[in-house]
């Protein structure tokens, strides 16, 4: 009975060997002794095929009994040797591939999480861009820069993902296309700044910085150099103050042309004598003028002294040492009028001077001769045919009206809106627009040197008819479309 059980056990073992390589290594021997009854081993069972299996699992062998009556026999495996070494190599390769697969799977999982994160970022960016498209005035240059930085960061990640995956991935390709589209939209929006919003914002930022700098400096004590009236110890004109609107000339708004100012006398610089000389409605004829003994009288139209002079030509009038000087009507003569008696005490022709509205200032007629006063005395600004309309400057003797010296400039007089002289330096102005004039040209009679400068001067109305400088208070007196305007001046120190 024991031999029968052993034989059955081996049959089962032999049937399992081809399907279990690990067990095959354990039973791969030449023979296996066992106890089995010889009469139980039948040839048809050992040599013939099984009803349901093609391979031959056993060979026909003879058994024997030992001294103790125990059955002894041998069982042989088939001739084909099982490839154990190849199976071991396959197991090693399978294990290695499994490890690599797990590693790559973890990477892909990480990349997919990152892709999901950046998908959300793209959605947020899309919302931002849509908001900016609908509200074109609410964005700034910084908004564009931040958007671009985020898009560039995502583009780098997607490029890295494409290289890492080494193949086509629908999600990654879609992300890459969306990022490129976002870049194009942002660049297009930035280039379509038709309202110059970014430029305006940059200018606002610049002005804000300037304001902060100005506020920072406002706490510092700034000492403005003081130069006594009548002295020329400074380095020339530096700046012009805002206009002070004193009043409308006493004859009314229709009298747009004329001149006004303050008398200057080196012996009595503190003397207050203000004069106003509007022209008639023809913008040429000087017929009446008024004098005021104080600034308060001028403001209140109080205690005026009004005189009729007749025969004044244009608005180039000036008052110096209680005498009024003007171009005599229809001639190249300069007239000298005593204000105390309202009589003309002297008339003198200015040699070669053009007259009759030949070379007047721009936008101002009949001002061929423009009388001026500075710390050094009486001057006249005019042109000649020989100068082809360029400005000529002559220093006059206020007593005899003789020409003491003459300077030729290269500045065309009809392109200048007005001119004045300070400490022997001619300053010429031109119109910038209806609210601004620019002091753009200077000629120094001491050195004969010309220079281009730029000092902006605000004005109340469009046309400046005359500018007179008073050395007694270092101010400009401007007749501006019938209004009396005053500017304070600032001078440069001598370096």
TrEMBL record:
Signal peptide stretch: 1-15
SMART domains assigned: OLF
GO cellular component labels: extracellular space
GO terms (BP aspect): signal transduction
Localisation per UniProt entry: Secreted
UniProt key word Signal: yes
Keyword check for rRNA-binding: no
Pfam families linked: OLF (PF02191)
Domain Olfactomedin-like: 231-493
Keyword annotations from UniProtKB, A to Z: Secreted, Signal
The protein's name in its UniProt record: Olfactomedin-4
Gene: OLFM4
